[in-house]
Amino acid sequence: MSEQALLQVSDLAVRYGDFVACEAINFELYAGEVLGVVGESGSGKTSLLKALSTQHVPSQGTVKYTPRDNKTLSLYQLPEAKRRHLMRSEWGVVHQNPRDGLRLNVSAGANIGERLMANGQRHYANIRQQASDWLTQVEIDVARLDDMPTTFSGGMQQRLQIARNLVTQPRLIFMDEPTGGLDVSVQARLLDLLRKLVAQYQLSVIIVTHDLAVARLLSHRLMVMQQGRVVETGLTDQVLDDPQHPYTQLLVSSVLQP
Amino acid sequence: MSDPDYNFAYLDEQTKRMIRRSLLKAVAIPGYQVPFASREMPMPYGWGTGGIQLTASLIGQYDTLKVIDQGSDDTTNAVSIRQFFRRTTGVKTTEKTTEASLIQTRHRIPETPLTAGQILIYQVPISDPLSFLEPRETEARKMHALGEYGMMHTKLYEDIAHYGAILHTYDYPVRVNDRYVMRPSPIPKFDNPKMDHMPALQVFGAGREKRIYAVPPYTSVKSLDFEDHPFEIQRWEQACALCGATDSFLDEIVVDDQGTRLFACADSDYCGSRQAAQEGES
Question: Which of A53, A127, A130, A200 could tie A113 with a disulfide, CB 3.0–4.6 Å?
Fold first, then answer.
């Protein structure tokens, strides 16, 4: 395959002092691909995500990213200014708790517009137009444009967070338990929306979740983590229907059937 | 004569040197907030301790000092600071903007245009424009360093979204020399255009926040705005009731129990000298 990988991760490790959060992580992510990272709490999923999305400097290893201009960059050798610019133009981060990803003291419109303004847009009417377009895209009533996010329900806050990230048309989205804390019907609607947006905008996504059903619905490929190491990788259906590693077998058989 | 019990201008010489060093750095990097070892002054924080320390380290024997508070020479803050420096330095003080070499101000820029060689010293309560938007000081410093000021516009966006116009009327954020975003201290936005390419040196002192920053002479100072909502200053229907000025910042004063209002210049020296000139003519 001649296509350049969007993200190339080699020998990545995150350690907190003597404690190993994750190590020996190697994988590649291609454009339009959705990679699920599953594993139980404490298996190093979130530490890995933080190291990939430049929120936490890894202890070892390299992360290379190929932006739109096709010149591959090694993230942790870049100046911080450039890294942060990538973060708000080509990437998006959807946090588990929308309160971590939203600015709660400004309206929904300003939340969506913030990244546009950070990238230099200075035309109020344009910014507002894009904000209301995106609010519609994530199925929130445009009449709520000037309302505070604190008056939104949990599911709406999560969708607002997604709109806020997608407004600059990023290529790569990091999601940490995007459906955590939502009830099943709200979760189903959010998953539907995510699937639609991923297909429509050809997004590459790395999604961290402990919920195998979410992983099956959204991701093309799966990475199973245990105690900081990747124990199994493969196509989602393959891993979930025919798990090879004992830990994956345990994980799959632990899912409750209603 | 200055009070022999105090060092000239109250502060000891080493402290003045320390402040001057920070000040030189501030002038060299327009709009950048330089930390300094702010001293306790014989007055509470919030009364201009930052401005006083700057004045104390800048003032020399042959200077002429003017102190204004909200544009006026005769309000408590102005009178007591003027008295303080008269007692500790013995230098000449004045109410005339044109005669002063140093002007310490709280919340106004004089209406009479300042000239090269003059120094305008602002008292600053809160120095960082990002402080209410970004609660983490470390992150705010990083945003300044990398010039990431997109967030400043969310505040203006909110004003337009809720009220149809930018309602921010004082302490209106500016970008200095196309680099740092700066709080101009709580001056009305009416005064913002005066800061742009001002021939006088402008220095800012925040005593409690322990920061000094400056705008060198003839430096560009632009108020933040949107392309389709450009920056505008306040306007009044009335002229000043005392001197008839139509180009100055007016205070609204309630003059009796019936709610009768009078509009008069906030700048007492500007208003007074205009009245004197008019009397001379008639």
Answer: A127
A1 lies in a domain? no
- Active site (annotated) includes residue B46: no
> CA of B116: how far to CAs of A33, B26, B31, B51, in Å?
63, 18, 19, 20
Compute the distance between CA of residue A49 and CA of residue A58 in angstroms, rounded to an integer. 10
Catalytic position from the list B240, B244, B259, B272:
B240
Write out chain B residues lying below 8 Å of A125, CB-based: 228
| In a domain? residue A258 | no
User: Residue A177 is part of a domain; what is its CATH number?
Assistant: 3.40.50.300
- Using pLDDT thresholds of 50, 70 and 90, give the confidence band for residue B157: very high
**Side chain identity at B277, as an amino acid letter?**
A
Assess if residue A75 is contained within a domain. Answer: no
In tens, the pLDDT along A95-125 reads 989 988 999 989 999 999 999 999 999 999 9
Closest chain B residue by Cα to residue A108: B158
In chain A, the number of structural domains is 1
A218-240 pLDDT, tens digit per residue, is 999 999 999 999 999 999 999 99
Distance CA B65, CA B86 (A): 9
Q: Read off the pLDDT band of A1 (50, 70, 90).
A: very low
Integer Cα distance of B253 and B242 in angstroms: 12
